[in-house]
Amino acid sequence: MEEQARQFIEALGGQENIKEIEGCITRLRGTLVDSAKLDRKKLQSLRIIGQPIILGNGIQVVVGTHAELIGTAMNKIMKDG
Amino acid sequence: MTQIQILSPFSGAVVPMEDVPDPVFAQKMLGDGLAVHPDEGLAVAPISGKLIIFHSAGHAFAIEAAKGHVTVLVHIGLDTVRMKGEGFRCLAKVGDCVSAGQRLVEFNLNAIVKAGYSVVSCVLLPEPPEGIQLAKSELSHVIAGTDTLLTVLIP
Questions:
Q1: Each residue of A15-35: pLDDT tens digit?
Q2: Which residues form the domain of A42?
Q3: Catalytic: which of A1, A14, A20, A24?
Q4: CATH number for the domain including A30?
């Protein structure tokens, strides 16, 4: 899970590009500094479902039913470095 | 042929998944099912089985059926994860074995509306086993724990 969380941080443009992120039940949702820095190819390689939904700098990525775990792991990594 | 009846977790008006005002649900990116516009703030277990997911915000859970490898996901309201549990009271926890009809979440419908979110709640099969058929209820209004919302046919 931790490795997967790291990959998602990278795919969203790195920690400095993520203002906030949280895991709902099936999707990660958050706010980015610049949604243009999103690495779509990398996101797809993480087996997300469909395309990421982008509204301004708000983003939602459907990852499956383990979304809350990934979101929690991402926040832990970003906090602890 | 095995049949699994999935009861409605909510009492309320039935809403086709395509009409849910959220693209992820409406486009069935997570799976197919039906939605309900609840009349009251109560969610019961739609099937007997094990609670495999219960979000910490209390607004969503998933149950793996005791038979047939079928998992049912229930999501109360839309974008309600942002309420961070406020207005939601969980009556069970992950790992619990629950019976169809058992009360799992009490929630405050007015709090959801006041917070600016839709109360439309989705019931779907996130990872359906291959080859199954899903029959949807044709009722326009269902009663929680009594009326069948979805029927899964496993060949």
A1: 999 999 999 989 999 999 999
A2: 2-80
A3: A24
A4: 3.30.1360.60
